[in-house]
Design brief:
This protein is an alpha+beta fold. It folds into 2 domains: about 200 residues, Metalloenzyme, LuxS/M16 peptidase-like (Cytochrome Bc1 Complex, Chain A, domain 1), CATH 3.30.830; about 190 residues, Cytochrome Bc1 Complex, Chain A, domain 1, CATH 3.30.830.10. Helix content is about 45%, strand content about 20%. The protein has 15 helices and 11 strands. The strands form 2 sheets. Strands 1-2-6-3-5-4 form a 6-stranded mixed sheet, sandwiched between helices. Strands 7-11-8-10-9 form a 5-stranded mixed sheet, with helices on both faces. Strand 1 and strand 2 form a beta hairpin. Helix 12 packs antiparallel against helix 14. The chain starts with a strand and ends in a 14-residue tail after the last strand. About 40% of the residues are buried.
């Protein structure tokens, strides 16, 4: 059963009661790296880390111990548009979890000594990404695709900025963006909505918005496609090719979902079969979507030998062109729909995934999106709609980012549409 309540201060609470012994609880805040600029990039992520580093009542060690004692699992993440703190616990531990989360959320100290320790942790996290080229390449590609817009910045932020952020910088960021109207609390599992709301109403009684309003988010303008190589002494070339996609709530979202599956979303997809299975050019090849409130990305990742970079790019371009020139077969479409439908039903077996879906539906649709509606939306997509969307998306030349041992002139960009 789906229920929604908005507290007097503007905090939204959404729950779904499910027959289970566990409950997954998440605090979602509508703040992320796109709410930053060049001089404070990395602030949202740094704040997320500091929320676990001590409150007036609990030290960082006590917080860690209490979260462990609750059992289950707990974590947090920062993305482009949201920050989330979540835990999955046994149903009888929910009151204790709510009190603990409220303490973290409202009373974190941002103590200078803890901040310095966590700064070093984040700098190591940045190094880890830089040492993982199949992660770093996505950051490089996003920078090319979005240009100077905040979506082109990384979630972690650059070293020099993270190294300069002070406790006051972060506290000011919290005051500016952690406002009741931007907070969504979600729970899925064996949870009684009214009792859950009562717990939070008590804990959040003093949570009010600071004066002023945060700057509005701006929609990015398209940037001229770039094709860049970032030389690095590696064994492989890691490459991303892509273009702009659709916003999360776009009318054609189910069409895009199926197009991605057909392109490179599973083992029977065109790219996987052509590049890996038939030609053995890559171990890892896939396509993916990264959609935001007002824009999105459709991209292809390849991990390849430097000597086949041009051939692999040409094959990707050929498959994209095929979608435009010829409709997918009825058999292909039916199989993609079966795969998508199975994924939808399997996803709800995880309470954490149910909680995440509830949050995304509220954040981007402002309502419940029933499972049957999703399945029906997938079923109604036609081959003609996929072809039409492919024509709209792939009419623009691809942006390309590649990192690895590629010499200047080693790639023939002419195999791509210009």
């Amino acid at each position: 059963m789906y229920c929604k309540t908005t507290l007097d201060n503007g905090v939204r609470i959404v729950t779904e009661k499910v027959d289970s012994r566990v409950v997954s609880v998440g605090i979602w805040v509508e703040v992320g790296s796109r709410d930053e600029h060049d001089l404070n990039n990395g602030s949202a992520h740094f704040v997320e880390h500091m929320f676990f580093k001590g409150t007036a009542r609990r030290s960082a060690q006590q917080l860690a111990r209490e979260l462990d004692v609750l059992g289950g699992m707990s974590n947090a993440f920062t993305a482009n548009e949201t920050t989330c703190f979540y835990a999955t616990v046994l149903d009888d531990r929910v009151p204790r979890l709510v009190e603990l989360f409220a303490d973290i959320f409202l009373n974190s100290l941002f103590a200078p000594e803890e901040l310095e320790r966590e700064r070093e942790v984040i700098l190591q996290e940045i190094s880890m990404v830089e040492d993982t080229p199949d992660d770093q390449i996505h950051e490089l590609f996003n920078r090319q695709l979005w240009g100077r817009h905040p979506l082109g910045n990384t979630v972690l932020g650059p070293r020099e900025v993270v190294g300069a952020l002070s406790a006051q910088h972060l506290l000011d960021y919290v005051k500016r963006f952690y406002r009741p109207e931007r907070v969504l609390i979600v729970a899925a599992g064996n949870v009684e909505h009214d009792a859950f709301c009562a717990l939070w109403r008590q804990e959040l009684a003093g949570f009010t918005a600071a004066k002023g309003t945060p700057p509005p988010r701006t929609t990015p303008e398209p940037v001229a496609p770039q094709r860049l190589v970032y030389p690095k002494p590696l064994e492989q070339v890691h490459m991303v090719l892509g273009t702009y996609g659709l916003p999360i709530a776009a009318e054609a979202r189910y069409t895009l979902f199926l197009l991605n599956i057909l392109l490179g979303g599973n083992m029977s997809s065109r790219l996987f079969q052509e590049i890996r299975e038939k030609r053995g050019l890559a171990y890892s090849v896939y396509s993916y979507l990264n959609s935001h409130r007002d824009c999105g990305v459709l991209a292809v990742y390849l991990g390849i030998d430097p000597g086949v970079a041009t051939e692999a790019m040409g094959l990707v371009q050929r498959e994209l062109t095929r979608f435009v020139q010829k409709r997918v077969t009825a058999e292909e479409l039916a199989e993609a729909k079966d795969y998508a439908r199975a994924g939808v039903y399997l996803s709800v077996e995880s309470m954490e995934t149910r909680m995440t879906q509830l949050a995304r539906h509220e954040l981007y649709f402002q309502r419940e999106v029933p499972l049957d509606e999703v399945v029906a939306g997938i079923a109604q997509v036609s081959a003609a709609e996929i072809q039409s969307l492919a024509d709209a998306l792939f009419s623009r030349p691809l942006s390309v980012a590649a990192i690895g041992p590629l010499a200047r002139g080693a790639v023939d960009w002419s195999v791509l549409k210009s």
